[in-house]
Design brief:
mainly beta
């Protein structure tokens, strides 16, 4: 049986050369990485929910599943799933929370999550707490799905998705700076409070503003600039862009 938990290594925002690649990271508490089965690889085997667990690596709860063949695995826990509930993944399972089946077999209007972009690759979309997608319809042999962003996209009918909306979705009130440090978030200094050599927004007399279109510390445009790359592989699958 595969190991369900292992210690998550700390990188503290450093790259392979030890340089800071992502600022404001480091010093977090030790975490375990749970092996969540996004692909729902146990097909047509009934599983029982042993317990719902907290996972520090995501804002959705996870469920520990004991399958009838004796194996265990973690899945994302949708709302309504409780200890003792039964779940299954397959082509002919019921439309109930926690079950996974191909998009082509899910009725229009159903709330889903953990959607595969390519069949067999494992769920990649709508996985965070309280985010969900809705099956909008069928067109030219594809399934139209409205994603959490509001974008409507075409999917292969064989792509797997899980019924329901992931539970969780909030960490609650942070309460004090020390909790943020234990989460691995280091202090962030405003650019306008820096020396002009350290940030484009720095310098000036007294409490001055940015004084320019907002920039990153490296001089690139920030806030409101479109970042989606041109010619993305899924451009042809988008039916309606997300809300601006």
């Amino acid at each position: 049986m595969r190991k369900l938990r292992r210690i998550l290594p700390k990188n503290s925002g450093r790259d392979a050369q030890g340089r800071v690649a992502v600022r404001h990271q480091g010093g977090r508490h030790k975490r375990f990485l749970r092996a969540v089965d996004f692909a729902r690889s146990k097909r047509d085997i009934l599983g029982k929910v042993e317990k719902i667990e907290y996972d520090p690596n995501r804002n959705a709860r996870i469920a520990l599943i004991l399958y009838s063949d004796g194996e265990r695995s973690y899945i994302l826990a949708p709302k309504g799933l409780e200890g003792g509930s039964k779940v299954c993944a397959g082509d002919a399972v019921s439309i109930t929370a926690g079950n996974a089946l191909p998009l082509g077999r899910i009725p229009v209007g159903t709330t889903i999550h953990n959607i595969e972009v390519k069949p067999g690759k494992g769920g990649q979309l709508a996985r965070s707490g309280l985010s969900s997608a809705i099956v909008q319809g069928r067109e030219n042999g594809t399934i139209l799905v409205k994603l959490p962003s509001g974008e409507i996209k075409r999917f292969d009918p064989l792509s797997l998705a899980t019924i329901g909306q992931p539970s969780g979705g909030t960490r609650g009130r942070i309460g004090k700076a020390g909790r943020k440090r234990r989460m691995g978030v280091r202090p962030t200094v405003r650019g306008v409070a820096m020396h002009p050599d350290a940030h484009p927004h720095g310098g000036g007399e007294g409490r001055s503003g940015e004084g320019m279109p907002p920039k990153t510390p490296w001089g690139k445009p920030a806030r409101g600039v479109k970042t989606r790359r041109r010619g993305k592989y899924s451009d042809g699958l988008v039916v309606k862009r997300r809300k601006q």
